[in-house]
Target: DOMON domain-containing protein
Amino acid sequence: MAACRLATSVVFCAAFAAARFMNLNEDYQAEVDIIGSGENTSILLLLTVNTKGYVGFGFGPNPNMTGADLFIGGVNNSMLYGKDYHGIGNTAPEEDCDTCQDWEVVTGVESDSGTSLVIQRLVNTLDTDGDIEIQNSTTYVLWSYGEFDIINHHRRRGFRELNLFTVDDPRPGSSTPNPN
Ligand code: HEM
Model:
């Protein structure tokens, strides 16, 4: 598993043994799992990004920042950080209120090959401060990363239209050569 090779913690591999792969960019790969049931259904993500700066992940009804439900986090001086944000336009996203912080940074590591973060939240947080329910349907997934841990702009960013409940891209290097 590509993400397991990058990540140094065995926890990453154990948690994501059955996860689906999501190829967002050559610099930004992710694995996704939907776990639990009913109101306790959660999304678990392993973000593996070619940066030592911040990592942004988001989703929403549009392929841009306005109205997007965003997470920004990373590893700075060996300390994990991460917060819930929402996009208000082509400007710095706003932090969700203190009682509306729904992403948990489960674990993470930064090395010379980049940053790997495991994050988790309920698919339906019921928060009205910028959160969107993650549904079994197509959405815009937004990704970004910064060169540093200063959250002032992105170094690269983009989006893909996909279903977080079903996306299952081929893993890099997994294609078998055609025997003919
Ligand atoms: C302080 C943080 C941020 C600032 C100041 C910022 C600012 C901007 C600006 C000015 C643009 C317009 C084009 C450009 O300059 O690239 C833009 C576009 C974009 N941003 Fe951000 N952004 C921030 C964080 C994020 C985060 C966390 C994400 C995703 C997780 C994100 C995703 C995007 C995407 C996908 C676009 C392209 C939208 C389009 O094509 O219309 N941004 N951002």
